[in-house]
Each structure stands twice: as structure tokens, then as C-alpha cells.
Amino acid sequence: MGQQQISPRSTEKSHISNILFALHIPTLILPLNMLQTPAITIQLQTLPTTPGVYQYYDSNGKLLYIGKAKNLKKRVSSYFTKSHDSYRIAVLVKKIVEIRHIVVATETDALLLENNLIKKHQPRFNVLLKDDKTYPWICIKNERFPRIFPTRRIIKDGSEYFGPYTSFKTVNILLELIKDLYQLRTCNYDLSKTKIENGNYKVCLEYHLKNCKGPCEDLQSEKEYHENIEAIRQIIKGNFKDSLSRFRDQMHHYAQNMEFEEAQRIKDKIEVLENYQVKSTVVNPNITNVDVFSIMSDEAFGYVNYLQLAHGSIIRSHTIEIKKKLQESDQELLELAIIELRQRFNSTCKELYVPMKVEIGEGLKVTIPKLGDKKKILELSLRNAKYFRQERFKQIKITDPDRHVNRLMGQMKKDLRLPQEPRHIECFDNSNIQGTNPVAACVVFKDGKPSKKDYRKFNIKTVEGPDDFASMEEVVYRRYKRLLEEKEPLPQLIIVDGGKGQLSSGLKALEDLGLRGKVTIVGIAKRLEEIYYPGDSIPLYLDKRSESLKVIQHLRNEAHRFGITFHRQKRSKAALETELDDIAGIGEKTAIALLKHFRSVKRIKEASLKELQEVVGVSKGNIIYKFYQEQQTP
């Protein structure tokens, strides 16, 4: 398949975009579902081994997927020559009936072209880059006395644009700082030299408020005004050094000339600038002109944070969310995000700090920090990504609970190495004190939340004394024997509160019911939150902050609470039975009324007939009084 080579000058976005539409790309139509036909085999064999971008189309000519490759032949062939664990990849390959490819000169060209094509066509199987809105810029207008203002529109009239910024809040803070430091005009007059000399304009209120020095009446020279603009330009770029030096020189000049009010005014400006600098300064001010990228991901999304550093200060922070489509690795997502974010924010930094090796073409220095200030900056970026992810989770819980549940279930399946999502989980806990009144509890979670109507409590029937292992075996057997008899659905995950001993007991019960291997069962030990699996002596330790562990802890705590509550009720009932329930004609309500009033059985025994009758009536009072009098008679 002959292809047109693309010039290496394609590093510019506009140039790359134009290439796509200028090329006439010959294609080979493949019969539907014939993934290993001779035609495909021939095409795969004849693919070039150069860098490029490949495109997959379905039978209707709809673009399914766009990918980049360092070696087109090797990458495209991998889709058709190996089995795929991912269902989505298998579906994609099944749908492919047309393959196109574009050969480019360098890997960098391939990255840029892939990014532009994805943004333009948004194919079904490509990751989605969220939050692609129009961002605000700071404009220094191309005028004789330039104005500075925020805008979302870029007009090619020779003006300078700085940004884009992630929010107008950041822009306004920066503009307020500039306003406090320098007096610039805000009017839109045409301040040409001729019109000023002709006296066309008069100073306005801004001049009298000392927010402007009146260039409209030639009260400020063009040279001084442009010196201020240059200082502002450096501040916007993150370079505070020149402005601070300039203000200090002015302050010393006024102080030496005994102009203390002016010196104090300049000192105030220095404090404003230093306070702003402190808020954005990184640990090491020598780190400059660097882009920092970090990533964290879950089963469905990746979150990439971008920090831009200039002159030792963080001048931009932005995080994007990327939806996975084909189980993309963190490296693949990070490479895509780096290209996207650098294009979006027009970054020209030549050095990157990243957490892993990435292939983003030539001309950039890629550093993977291991320690020191560079490592701290990378950790700061990762914290930003984590905070963004947490905020997204909070929003999703409210706005899209189904997505939250799906994500959580997918994460638990991955973390706990389960064959399917644990939509239905049951947790067991035994409860006894010194072997008395042994009971057990079973709590049920569905979609990660308690289903209290499905909770069950058990009196231990076949076990004598405090034997947690035998008790666990009994309740697990009784629970699932009943579910099988009633043809109720079984859980995807069973958790027993305890270590290897309790797990072995629960496993034996499942084995007796023929359920071993059909339902996953694990044990959780309390001391270090170890999770034990059948036949594996080495426990699994989940991240203490992971959502999967939090759900398991919630299950365990809920089972413990439910079991303790049941145990207390049983003990209380047993205590009543030993004393008051031996009295014929006295029921539970009467016993409770007596205990509430007298606080103990001893006081009931010592109460007078009149006191008893006042609480439970004449008839029952006589019965209780007579019962205890007869006990005292020798």
C-alpha cells in the first residue's frame, strides 16, 4: 500500500491538521468478521515499519478507532495475531472491515496527528478527553499605550495573549495584582500621538483615583508606560525578580530623598508582590520552565494533573479526566494527556517531570525524579490528581449514582481478584462472652450498600462452649442450605470475620453444600486488616485508603454491631428469665415495667406490697409480693 511521506515540519498543530485532508489514502476493504483472511494477512505483511497513525472503520464507513505507532506493522498486526482479554478490544477487532494508515516522519508527528484526529472525530473506541472548553486568556493589546484585560477570544491583530488559564478566578487574581502594582489605562481611546498633542482627551476619574497616570493628556511618557508593560509581561510569565528589584531601587531612591510617603507606597507594592510570590513558589526556585505531569487511574478513568513551572513558581495547575475504552495503560493515557495539555496551553517548555517512562518524540528532556525537590513537585502534582478524583467521586455519587456503583464494583473486582463484580456480598461474625449465649450475625450488602432487610441472626444450636470455628461452620452451612432450598440467589462474595481458622470453617460448610469454587469466600483478620484466600497462606493487604477496603471494613463493622446487639438482647432476656419469669402470671411487659421502676431484681424483692401495687396493679402486686415472701420463709 503506497503512502505519501509527511514532512518533519509537522510539529505544529495547524500543519498536522492540514496534512490529513490533503492526503489521498488508498484503503483495502475487508469482508465483515473475516479477521484472518488472506487479504488481511497480505495487508498486515505489507504494512510499513515506520512511525504513523492507523485508523479502523466498520462496514458502514464509521471511524471506530485511531491509534499511533512507532512501528505501524508491529502495532496493527498485534490486534489480529493475539487473543484479547478485554471484551471491548475483541468487539473492536470483530467490527473492523477497513484499515487506513498515514505514514509520518517521526514519532512526535504521529503523536500530534493522533491527538488532533481523536479530537476532531471522537471515535467510539478511543479514550475521551473531558473538559475541552474555551479557556480565558490575558491580553496585552497591540496599542501605543496597551491595555491589559481578560478575554476568551483570540484576535490576530498583533496583540499578545498569555494563557490559557483554567479559570477566570486565576485571571482576576493576577489582574488585581497588576492593578495594585502599576497604573494602566482602562479606556479604549485611540491614544495616537497626533490626537494627544491636539488635546482631544481629558483625564477621567481613574486619574484622580491614582489608578492611571494620564497618558491621554501626555502626563505619562510612552517609554515609562512600556517599561511597566514589560514588567507586567514578566510577572505574568512567573518572573517576579525584575519587578521586585525595580521596586526596591525606587523605594531606596525615595527614602534617600526624604520622600517617605512615596517610599512607603512602593514598600506596600513590594509586600503585595512578595505575598503573591509566596503563594505560588515551589521549594526550589532554581527549578524553572518545566512541565510536570502525574497520573492516577481506576478501572474506568484516568486522571492526569499538569503543573507548569516558570522561574520557580507554579503558574498553572490543571487536571483532566480521561475515559478508558480499551484497558489503556497509565503510560498510554499519560502520553496522550501530555500531548493534549501541552497543545491546549501552548506550552514551549523543553523539560518534563513524569512518574514513568513515556515516549513523546524527540526534542524534549524527560526526567523521572527519584528524590529531592523535583520528587516533591511530582508528588504535589499527584496529590492534585487525587484530590480531583475524590471531588469527582463526590459529584458522581450525587449526580450519577449508577456510574459510582459501577466504578466501585469494578474496582473491588480488580482489588480482590474476583471472577465477577461483587454486587451481592455477605459477611458473618460470631458473638459470645465467656461462652454464654453464643450467636452469629450475617449482614448483606448490595451494590456496596447495606441491605438491612436481608440481615439475618442465628442462635448457635449444635456447638457447646466457645468454639468460633465450629460456630462459623454451622451458620455458613445453615445460611446457604436455606438459600439453596428456597432457590434464592447466592452472593458473589462471602466474608468471614477472622483469619485462616474461620475461613477454613466457612470453606468446609460450602464444600459440604457443593458450593466450593462457585462462590468466592475470604477471611479478614482484624489486627492488620489481612485478607485471606482459601489455599493461600500469604494474605492480601489492600491500600489503607482504598475504597475496596473501606467497603470490607464497613461490612465487618456492621456484622459486628448487628451480632453484638443480638447478643445483648439475648443476655438481657436470659437475665429476666432467671428471676422474674419464674413467677406464674407475670409476663415480659410486667417484668420490664418493674425493672424500669426499681432498677434491679434485688430492689423488687425488698419492695413493700404497696410499692409493687402502685407499679403493676393490685393483683400482680399481690402475686409478686407473695412469691418473694414464700422464698424468704424457711
Account of the protein in words:
With 634 residues, the chain is α+β, with helices and mostly antiparallel strands. The chain has 21 helices and 21 strands. Strands 14, 15, 16, 17, 18, 19, 20 and 21 form an eight-stranded mixed beta sheet that branches. The chain has a six-stranded mixed beta sheet with strand order 5-11-10-9-12-13. Strands 1-4-2-3 form a four-stranded antiparallel beta sheet. The longest helix has 33 residues.
Helix content: 40-55%
Largest sheet: 8 strands, mixed
Measured distance between first and last alpha carbons: 114 Å
Number of strands: 21
Determine Rg (CA atoms, Å). 37 Å
The stretches of 5 or more residues where confidence is low (pLDDT under 50) are 1-35
State the secondary-structure class. Answer: alpha+beta
Query: What share of residues are in beta strands?
Result: 15-25%
Rough outline: flat
Average of per-residue pLDDT values: 79
Q: Counting H and I runs of at least 4 residues, what is the number of helices?
A: 21
Task: Summarize this entry quickly.
The protein is 46% helix and 18% strand. The chain is α+β, with helices and mostly antiparallel strands and 634 residues long.
